[in-house]
Amino acid sequence: MKTLFVARQINLFEQFANPQLSISEDYRIIDQILEDEEIITELAKDFPDALTGRNRTPVEQTLRFLVLKHQRGLDYRSLERTLQVNLEDRWFCKISGQNIPCFKTLQNQISQISEGTIKAINDRVMAEARKLKLTKGKKMRVDSTVTEANIHYPTDSSLIVDGIRKITKTLTKLKIVPQGYRTFKRKIRQQINIIRTIGRKNKEARRKAIQKLVKIGKAVIGKTKGFRRKQVSQTRNILQTIIKQTEQVLRGEKPGDRIVSIHDTSARPIPKGKANRPCEFGQAVQIQEDEHFVTNWEIDSKTKDAEFFPKALDKHNQLFEKPPNTAAADRGYWSPGNKEYALGAGVKNVSIPKKGKLNEPEKEFQNTEKFKKGQRFRAGGEAKISLLKRQYGLGRCGYAGDKGMSLWIGGGILACNLITMARLMAG
Fold it and tell me: For the domain 135-151+267-409, what is the CATH code?
């Protein structure tokens, strides 16, 4: 059965074991913020009602588990372990005695939370920050980054091998291996060794090895064509797509909307033009901020930067009930329509460098102190993105699929906003 709230109980043994236990000021402030009943009621929508069965982990505790996990960069097993031994973390998550969920329960509970719910909770936190006058919403900046999927570097040969191995593993697990089915382990190993050795210098040898892997992949697909089990058919369809895009490459064509992982089909190749990493594999993330907090984000590799800017202004107006005085971004967000939209919405300083050649009035405007001040504010967004990547996990997603990506990014941003709010309140 679903339980919303849990009371914090005083454990006499824990008090006796560590009478000098002190709770950090950050934890105490975040604890007060998360006591908001509206936040818990919003989160409860993601958990189904049940009249029978064992009581679920309280919804209030699930939110605290999410925040603790992303603030500390823990996996589920580490989260279970810290809840067993760390008295401060136990206090924060309202755990008393031995009522500690196992890592599987923690995973099942946290994975129920949707992106829309995390955004609604973040909006509630922003409303509280505005009420406490921690932010006034006078400035807005937007920037984009890439959160990489948790996958190995994709090559045509490795993706085909991954597909064959996954189909074989699934058939073995379901105990439905057809008679005469071959795993092709020796042949696959031979071709991979050729690609890794002489294939590095000999393009023709590499090409022939990849063609043989394509042939093996087609043989596996043909042998499992009659199986309609969901696990088998999904992997088979992905493998077919990978073989098609590999054949396009062999013909000298460039495949569109390329799959880069057999396990995470939502990941996409995103060229960023960095010297050490020209292409990243994952999802593009649009980040919107005010003076201190991340107020909104959007995960979509197909949305262009310029298309996100009007959405960001609308969201800012919704949160603060007024437009920002300064709206700053890099030149990727420039378009004549965006500038007109911002000025029409009441933005006084639209600090976005124009693409292309500048005329004299535009040169004069971009040399003004007002414009440069907006660009200095925009540069601070790079620091926030760096913080999110280094400390809150936005550099590389630890979950799979679209829902996993949205939960990973949303959880990291919410945890960052809560700790920022706590430190501003603490002075």
Answer: 3.30.420.10
- Phi first, then psi, for residue 29 (nearest 5°) are -70, -45
Name the DSSP class of 396: B
- Rounded to 10°, the helix 369-391/401-426 angle is 110
Give the model confidence (pLDDT) of 238-282 as tens digits: 999 999 999 999 999 999 889 999 999 989 999 877 777 788 999
DSSP-based three-state secondary structure for 126: helix
Helices (H), 97-154: 103-110, 115-131
Query: How many helices and strands (H and E) does the chain possess?
Result: 17, 6
CA dihedral over 258, 260, 265, 268, signed as positive or negative: negative
Of 112, 106, 134, 210, which is closest to residue 420 (Cα–Cα)? 134
pLDDT in tens, 271-324: 877 777 788 999 999 999 999 999 999 998 777 899 999 999 999 999 999 999
- In angstroms, the Cα distances linking 323 to 122, 310, 341, 363, 389 are 19, 12, 11, 26, 29
CA angle 220, 223, 224 (to 5 degrees): 90
Residue-wise pLDDT tens digits, 139-171: 999 999 999 999 999 999 999 999 999 999 999
Q: Report d(CA 161, CA 178) in Å as an integer.
A: 19
Q: Among 180, 214, 1, 6, which Cα is nearest to 93's?
A: 6
Q: Are 352 and 331 in contact (CB under 8 A)?
A: yes
In the chain, where the domains are located? 12-110, 135-151+267-409, 156-250
Closest to 220 measured CA to CA, from 257, 274, 297, 165: 165
Any idea how long the chain is? 427
Residues 6+ apart with CB under 8 A from 237: none
